[in-house]
Amino acid sequence: MALEFMDTIGRFIPSISGPKAPMSLREKMYWTGGILAVYFLLYNIYAIGVNQQAVSQPILQLISIIFAARIGSLITVGIGPIVLSSIILQLVNGSGLIHLDLNDTATKGRFQSMQKLFAMSIAMVESVVFVLSGYVPVASHAVMPFVMLQLIIGAFTIIFLDEMMTKYGITSGINLFIAAGVSFAIVAGTVGILVPEAAATIAAGGAAALSNAVLAFGPLFFAIIIFLISIYAYEMKIELPLSFEQLRGVGGRLPIPFLYVSVLPVILASSLELSFTVWFRFLANVGGSLANVAKFFAYYQASSSGPQLAGGIVYLISPTFPLPYSAAYGGVGGYGPYFSYLATHVSTLFLPWGGSVLVPEWVHVIVYTVVLMLLCVVFGKFWIEMTGQSPKNLAEQLGSTGWQIPGFRRDPRIVESVLNKYIPTVTVLGSLFVGLLAALSTLTGAIGTGMGILLTVGIIYMLYQQLQQENLYETYPVLNKIAK
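RE: above sequence
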């Protein structure tokens, strides 16, 4: 299956034309700034007809961070459709159901058109799901279709902004939007929540006023710790010596970073988990003979702000934890009540054949952490195969550009055997690490969410490396020829 049918369908799918000539780094920076300005404009405009006061569930904040979205705004769906379409199509391609040579320009173009079409289809479905399920509360049922239409238009805009960033900007739109959203959340959370909370604590007086005011900045403190740990992890690497065959005496090093696949496994794993919390919300209304089966997967309780995920398999694998802020800001009152909640709260797991089991919250913590780590490993190994970062692909790239490992024959199979000693192990260990760090950081309630901080650090680090490379190529144009 070579996707020839996409040649006809692709003509009707709008596309962003690429630049006609190579762009300088300054031009790419201008385009990136303009696209970011449009993103923030959409981020801060709520859809007409949305009840803004009802958008306050903690789980929605994490969904917003991972999907670079803002629930209730024009970009409620965010990058979710782009990520989900990529996951599904890459899995289909990787499973062997279809065989595509993505090194072929024509096939790659068809694949990208299909991915865009799939993303637009998912965007329409998710826009409807968000409104019908109650995740986006509306002022009245009469405005539901209008709200759905606005969310669809906003989702399509994000898809095309992402494509524009890929062709004109300095990084992908997904990376830029996540980093921008997290940065905004950290600044807004610190100024709008932590500072007023600390001020209110001091104003209340008492012997513990000062210590409680310091504890109010706990989410910011954890955010800084996660930030520093992430930077340290990104600096860890193994370096293999290289020599250049065509120029004797010219050598270099091949870095194999500890986080070889960066934060991509976390993005994919978290997007998959959080997608379940959206899609399975329809099970809240299932009755009859299928009620127990529906509750087994996802059990919802009624509340003033709509059905709340309170049990089931989806609950156990999702980061559905309260926020350790004061109750005035939608939290549970601080870290004392928060850790007490984790130690004493129980959820309900309904069995398909009848009956139920009470599951302690600490079991939820363990299940969520373990599942996230395992998913990160799966997506990490999958990603290096799909993006040409496997030992085999890397060995072929080194051989084609004239590089070799000193002391070994210039044979891709020999180089592959050397790389196989490092890359698979580093991929697994790095994926486990980012999964564990993301889970622990989410459990600490770090401002901007620990998951968001981890993603942002990774994105900034990749952007820094890319800017260095861009500047190097502009300074020494001859390197462009070698790289090609």
